Automatic annotation (TrEMBL):
<feature type="transmembrane region" description="Helical">
    <location>
        <begin position="245"/>
        <end position="268"/>
    </location>
</feature>
<dbReference type="InterPro" id="IPR008915">
    <property type="entry name" value="Peptidase_M50"/>
</dbReference>
<feature type="transmembrane region" description="Helical">
    <location>
        <begin position="138"/>
        <end position="165"/>
    </location>
</feature>
<feature type="coiled-coil region">
    <location>
        <begin position="517"/>
        <end position="544"/>
    </location>
</feature>
<keyword id="KW-0472">Membrane</keyword>
<protein>
    <submittedName>
        <fullName>Peptidase M50</fullName>
    </submittedName>
</protein>
<dbReference type="GO" id="GO:0012505">
    <property type="term" value="C:endomembrane system"/>
</dbReference>
<feature type="transmembrane region" description="Helical">
    <location>
        <begin position="274"/>
        <end position="295"/>
    </location>
</feature>
<feature type="domain" description="Peptidase M50">
    <location>
        <begin position="190"/>
        <end position="269"/>
    </location>
</feature>
<feature type="transmembrane region" description="Helical">
    <location>
        <begin position="351"/>
        <end position="373"/>
    </location>
</feature>
<dbReference type="InterPro" id="IPR001193">
    <property type="entry name" value="MBTPS2"/>
</dbReference>
<dbReference type="GO" id="GO:0031293">
    <property type="term" value="P:membrane protein intracellular domain proteolysis"/>
</dbReference>
<keyword id="KW-0812">Transmembrane</keyword>
<feature type="transmembrane region" description="Helical">
    <location>
        <begin position="379"/>
        <end position="397"/>
    </location>
</feature>
<comment type="similarity">
    <text>Belongs to the peptidase M50B family.</text>
</comment>
<keyword id="KW-1133">Transmembrane helix</keyword>
<dbReference type="GO" id="GO:0016020">
    <property type="term" value="C:membrane"/>
</dbReference>
């Protein structure tokens, strides 16, 4: 029996039809509302005319449309409308075939327990409130917040506040730094709660103002990250694009109003808790509104605003479908029609948007997994990472590969498939072939024996006996210092010694004073010992060379008469020995290098030449404290560190290796990196090894 001659399925009684916005070509649209499932479906002019005559068979409906309108509608197009209605469960189930169809749909949607858990982990909602009646009562009380005069007043507050902040920018930036603390994070959390409540209420109140029902408000979890939500899906029944844009932008507009007034209050309030609260509210709200909500890559306000502004419902799935079609055509030139008719410029924009969404989501979800890994349970972070890579990368790739397999006969009909095959082969060869032999690591270079010169105590420079770069021998005087305190104490001891010696000589001549001779002799010995100690201390103020070498890197302030501290390094004595490089190799690369491997040191300074050498020794335990601050990220280096007291603790496993370089030692310590010719390794092998190292290290953490 011809399908076009079969009776059309009846529509469900609870459905309602609402006028929709006009498309860019001026054609009208309508919206079908399914109140049971809270779903909305946009249909065009032809589908509306068919539904207006939805009785009898497809042939009869098509004939009625052709006779009563200017639309030349075929039987097949009516059947396409019927399939659309049945596929979205908008028709009545009046036969066994309908029951079988609904059962098949339910079975297809009934995923396994693992898939349900995975989907709920990625996204799920918890409705908390039914706010419709509450919003209806509150709306008259707060309607003035949406009035034109309040919007203009908020704009004025914004401009004035930004002007005042610009005049106090240093104080504003300093306050921002001060809030990076535990108490500051708690304050930002409270500000987040307050601002997001205002945000969602703004959506609900604006929707209520335009006559829409707001059934629920609650919390949605996006990869375990909580975000508030308000169900304003009924705004799809609004025919006015302006009204839908106002509902979609209400949250951002409310946040920006809060930020504007909070910024202005911060500029006028005196120092105290109120001003601190205004600052936190303003700073967080600016970031939340401009950097998060406005982006259309996630299903936040920016996404819905773009859809309403461009009249592109279901923007993400449509863009993804267009990007998959573009990819197949670029690779295989199948000649398939695009998923929907669209101008070339908009097609390219949709494809670019789809790839931007994929990249953004991948980075976002991996960032969330990294946060969980570093600040919560590490094994949970690893599992989240694996799930997100599987769900957002591997699963879409596998789905696309299956689509290619279905089209394999058409793909292999031509020769276009050879190009992507060659490119894929090249990528696999680069990834699998162990061509990567060079290992790079940050390093410093200095002489094997370098002695820094320091004073034993604060003193005044009297003479500089050597010049920079001058050869010296062990024990040679280099710098002469004096300390007035020591000179004064030496003069006092000398006077006391002279008096005691005279007294001893007098006692020796007195027959009745010889019993005092023993006590005077002990006092004289004590003064001699004290004088010897002062003389030794004075001699230490003459800085001598600890060994033979070159006098290098003198302090720039070595001027006669200058007072210097014992904490200041005066100069260096570099011995004429070997040239040593100290490098720090990451844990992943340690097994690829061995003692005796060739090394090239490349300094960061452009006026220094590179040096070659070999690995001499390797530590088998990671360094606990970094003794070369120049290599830390805090000072522009490459090794990530955290500050623990007075020490720099590396973040991650770094192993110290000692390298003997050829040539004379440099006059100063050089900073750069070394290139080690180690064991070859492929990119895939490196990734797998890094993953295994993390799993072994963190399993059970």
């Amino acid at each position: 029996m011809d399908a076009a001659a079969s009776p059309l399925p009846g529509l469900r009684d609870e459905l309602s039809l609402h006028p929709g916005p006009a498309l860019w070509d001026g054609s009208p649209t309508w919206t079908i509302r399914d109140p049971v499932r809270n779903r909305y479906f946009r249909i065009g002019w032809a589908a509306f005319e068919a539904l207006s005559r939805w009785e009898g068979t497809a042939g009869e409906v098509a004939a009625a449309v052709r006779a009563e309108t200017t639309i030349d509608m075929s039987d097949a197009e009516v059947m396409e409308v019927a399939r659309f209605l049945s596929g979205n469960q908008l028709t009545q189930a009046s036969s066994h075939a309908d029951t079988v169809r609904l059962t098949a749909q339910a079975t297809a949607e009934n995923h396994s327990v693992f898939n349900r858990l995975l989907h709920h982990y990625l996204f799920f909602r918890i409705p908390l409130l039914r706010p419709d009646r509450f919003l209806g009562k509150v709306l008259p009380l707060v309607a003035w917040l949406g009035s034109p005069w309040f919007r203009w007043a908020s704009l004025g507050a914004l401009l004035l506040g930004l002007t005042l902040v610009a005049r106090q920018w240093e104080l504003f930036a300093a306050t921002l730094v001060e809030t990076f603390s535990i108490s500051g994070m708690v304050s930002y959390g409270l500000a987040l709660s307050l601002v997001k409540i205002i945000h969602e209420l703004a959506h609900g109140l604006t929707a209520k103002r335009f006559g829409c029902r707001v059934p629920t408000m609650g919390v949605a979890f996006l990869v375990m990250w909580p975000v508030l939500y308000t169900d304003v899906n009924e705004t799809w029944t609004l025919a006015s694009r302006r009204q839908r844009l106002l509902v979609g932008a209400a949250g951002i507009m409310a946040e920006l109003s809060v930020a504007a007034w909070a910024t202005l209050l911060w500029a006028f309030l005196p120092d105290g808790s109120l001003r601190q609260g205004a600052f936190i509210l303003a700073a967080f709200t600016w970031v939340s509104s401009l950097a998060i909500n406005l982006l259309p890559f996630m299903r936040f306000d920016g996404y819905f605003l773009v859809m309403d502004a461009l009249e592109l419902p279901n923007l993400h799935p449509r863009a993804f479908a267009m990007a998959r079609w573009w990819l197949r055509e670029s690779l295989f030139a199948l000649g398939e029609p695009p998923p929907e008719p669209m101008k070339p410029g908009r097609q390219r924009a949709m494809v670019a948007f789809a790839f931007a969404v994929w990249i953004y989501r991948l980075m976002l979800f991996l960032g969330i997994a990294a946060l969980v890994y570093h600040f919560f349970i590490k094994i949970v972070g690893i599992l989240l990472f694996a799930v997100e890579i599987g769900w957002f990368v591997l699963l879409p790739i596998w789905s696309e590969v299956k689509a290619w397999v279905k089209r394999r006969e058409r793909i292999f009909c031509g020769t276009r498939w050879m190009r992507p095959l060659f490119g894929l082969s090249l990528v696999l060869w680069v990834a699998i072939f162990p061509w990567r032999t060079r290992i790079e690591a940050p390093a410093t270079v200095a002489a094997e024996i370098v002695a820094p010169l320091f004073l034993p105590a604060a003193a005044r420079l009297e003479a500089v006996l050597v010049k920079r770069g001058q050869p010296v021998h062990a024990g040679m005087p280099l710098l002469l210092f004096t300390a007035p305190d020591i000179l004064a104490r030496q003069a006092t001891i000398a006077a006391k010694l002279a008096g005691k010696r005279a007294e001893v000589e007098a006692v020796k001549l007195d027959l009745f004073g010889r019993e005092r001779l023993s006590a005077l002799t002990e006092e004289l010995a004590r003064l001699d010992s004290e004088k010897a100690g002062l003389d030794a201390e004075a001699e230490r103020l003459t800085v001598t060379a600890p060994h033979s070498g070159l006098f290098l890197d003198p302090l720039p302030d070595l001027q006669v008469g200058a007072w210097l501290s014992p904490r200041q390094q005066l100069a260096l004595i570099r011995a004429d020995g070997a040239t040593i490089a100290t490098a720090y190799v990451a844990e992943d690369d340690l097994e690829r290098i061995h003692e005796g491997d060739a090394v090239r040191f490349i300094p960061y300074s452009l006026d220094q030449a590179s040096m070659v050498g070999t690995i001499h020794t390797m530590d088998r335990n990671p360094v606990k404290v970094l003794t070369d601050p120049a290599l830390a990220t805090l000072y522009g280096g490459e090794i990530p560190v955290r500050v623990s007291g007075q020490n720099l603790v590396p973040q991650g496993g770094f192993f110290r290796i000692i390298i003997h370089l050829e040539g004379l030692p440099p006059p100063i310590k050089l900073v750069g990196h070394v290139q080690i010719s180690g064991q070859a390794q492929s990119l895939v092998g490196r990734v797998l090894r890094s993953a295994l190292v993390v799993l072994v290290r963190e399993w059970g953490a």
